[in-house]
């Protein structure tokens, strides 16, 4: 049972549990006492002896003595000490000590006092004073004052309850912390309590005695104890004298609480303090006159202890924050909260500014002021989603009206190191698109790494990798303008590793410039390499017209024979690749020196002055512009996604394959299927309101996350979206043997792994009639119809040109027939 | 080590700025703001003391020397500082298990200035002067607490200086630079620390031989206040004052702090700063006088606190006397 009880106890109740054990022990003792009868004789004898040893005045029951004897195993002296100690907290001990030297009156009074206290202890009141949490003298607030501004709504008086405001608990002071004392502190408190009560009862006893003999030395003892103030003590002594003389009983401690502490009068009490001064102050010739040193709390302290505010003084103490201005009438009468706060003023001004700026954008309720809350809320939502207003232009009409210069995008293709970039650099330099200074700078840099001939190429090749390797890696875009046409150069990489980039460039081109190195073995190696592949690719991408720049003529001393040889071989090849001979133009030129690029070569340069044809630029100018697919739905291939700064967090650029667009249009990005809004349009670095097919435009988008936009994705109009397809049928021109195999399908920059699932038929190259159904293999150069299954969906539609590559080689190019 | 854990306030002052016009244009005006001692040389400033403010502590006390003089309202900077100290006593509490056995109470004293306690801002980490004050305070208290009654336990006395005593008048700081320092303010702070710690220990109920109080006396010299005080024979115009306020004196020659047990006439702590010369003994005597004067306040306060705490018993003892007078209020208290 004991165990269970202990378990149920909290740690705080340790003392209680100790008591439990003690009681249990007692019970056991009694039980044992009964058990061993032979010892009862000892017990009886011992009891008598102890009684004799103890005082008569102390009334201790036999049972207690027996217990003590049992505990000390019949040791009389120890039992007596124990019993005396046990009753020591009571004033009896004091009395007993006093008895030896003092006469009986004091004793009697003290005894009676003790007895009353003990009696009370057995009743309701604890013999030890329980310290109350001292509450402030001001904590008692009258209910009337507390509720003085509360309207009571005419409640009849008999129904009104009495409200008692509990004093603040814990009384005002610093906050925080746990008020639970540690175990040792509790012990200390208990000891202190005990001591205090002892002192109190002793003081009471002394007071009784003092009443009889005011001059007794007990008074001095009492003085030292200092339980009460001196003056109070005298009064108390006088009063108790009167009372006790008749009843000889001290006032019974009642349950009535000690009334609120009397307010200390602030008047100095020099007499009192002087008496308080200990006599042991070292003798000095000039004794200090100690005035009342107690100060009232300052404002700060008053706040902390929670006392009442001090009386407003005529002049507040130095250091108070408001003391400087408090007395001025303008400060006293000011109502600082009557007008709008400074924050309100600023916010109002800002709101006004926003309104005027955003006014034109707010279509539905731009002019009228919102009359109610709902209106204002709706206007708020309009503001929050910044819809770009479309100008609702008829783009086609605008395009007609603009009388725009002809525009042409061309891709520069050719084998690696045949001088594509240098030729374009020369072109731009001679057309003053690139100024002398930057070319000089590039030349110096190129000389520094010992590749001075690369200086012009670096006009196009701007990344560090391209410059250090001396080859073009990615498509470089640049613009120039002749009298008739605005050109966009797409400088494609010639290296075979970067064919995908070249495809991406070629897919944006209207026509192509094929650059061929006229020197030594270069032409021949090119013909086996990327000269051939590029030519086939651009043809399969739909490029009809080709300008063949026979470059580096300076290295072969402008040999007409060499030029004719190259022309013949290339014509033969290109016609075989289904180019029309009338769409081919051969231009001899030298990119490094700049002859026949924009100006015809000097006579002394060309031996015999055999060439009288157009320059490269003239040839470019002569090219018929491609027909613009303006009326078709919008198709734009993303060739770049970038962050255009804070204003334009997401921007894309690419060529409009078909259709038109304008600011404010909603567009659909495929294959992600997310919509976006066109915030603004830039063409060739200039802001524009619209763009049409054939142009390479930069679109600044809104309402779309950049993760939905990737290179090669198609931007289309939501009304006629391009579809994501998983398989399609295509008519292909094979460059290599085609069998059912794994291929990569390229569409511009976009590519996806796929599988040639079926070879439907081999077709006649010219008529397109079926020559052989279900072939096992498609020979190089043959035209065939195949079915391709994609591993992931791609946005494709009928008429899209695609390229099939496998193992780094282009194996076929094709036109989508059925998706 | 630099304090990197907190975002420290900019180094510099904590009080209102001093405008150049005050200093440069009119030095006479500046001198007119100089505070002077209006009390008698042997008169202390009034003290406000209160115990039991921190509920979480075993014992606590708050000491303040409020400014009771009317303000001149000519400057935002208070001409004198008003000392404000709080003390919290935690314990006696058991020592941690890791601590070696101690047959008596282990006393730990900490004195910390609040960062804004003085015009020159202080850091959050205790500096040398604060540690020094802590050691002095421990010396003052160690002999007072009866430590043998609390074996294997410790007590923490933590004094926080909310507002400290300045080392001099602010006008001197700006005109004469920082050479006026001297740390005179620390002496008053230490005396206050001793008194407030004593009150807090009493509030915590830790057994003491007596209530210890701190007192300060100083030998000062005011060039333009010749013959105002008594000549103590130390110099031509120097004299001794009790409870000096460094801002009120143009020159302080020496200062003495004592921790004094008024009931037993014992000194537990003595700290003399400066050059008192032959008058050292006299200076200590004056400091003792100051301490015994402070003791009157401390006693009253402790007595009142005890009365409040044990008012049930006391009320019982005096119930017959007071019941009739205060019966109405008793009923109100419920």
UniProtKB/TrEMBL annotation, chain A:
Keyword Membrane recorded: no
Protein location: Cytoplasm
Annotated region described as Disordered, given as residue ranges: 255-284, 352-373
Main subcellular localisation: cytoplasm
PANTHER family in UniProt: TRANSLATION FACTOR
Entry's family note: Belongs to the TRAFAC class translation factor GTPase superfamily. Classic translation factor GTPase family. EF-Tu/EF-1A subfamily.
Record note on quaternary structure: Component of the Dom34-Hbs1 complex, also named Pelota-HBS1L complex, composed of dom34 and hbs1.
Protein known as: Elongation factor 1 alpha-like protein
TrEMBL record, chain B:
Main location, first listed in the record: cytoplasm
Keywords of this entry: Cytoplasm, Exosome, Nucleus, RNA-binding, rRNA processing
BP terms from Gene Ontology: nuclear mRNA surveillance; poly(A)-dependent snoRNA 3'-end processing; rRNA catabolic process; rRNA processing; U4 snRNA 3'-end processing
Gene3D superfamilies documented for this protein: GHMP Kinase, N-terminal domain
A GO molecular function held by the record: RNA binding
UniProt-annotated location(s): Cytoplasm; Nucleus
UniProt xrefs under InterPro entries: ExoRNase_PH_dom1, ExoRNase_PH_dom2_sf, PNPase/RNase_PH_dom_sf, Ribosomal_Su5_D2-typ_SF, RNase_PH
Residue intervals passing through the bilayer: none
GO cellular component, as recorded: cytoplasmic exosome (RNase complex); nuclear exosome (RNase complex); nucleolus
Domain of life: Eukaryota
Ranges where the Exoribonuclease phosphorolytic domain occurs: 43-206
Homology family: Belongs to the RNase PH family.
Protein name as annotated: Exoribonuclease phosphorolytic domain-containing protein
Organism in which the protein naturally occurs: Lepidopterella palustris CBS 459.81
Classification lineage: Eukaryota, Fungi, Dikarya, Ascomycota, Pezizomycotina
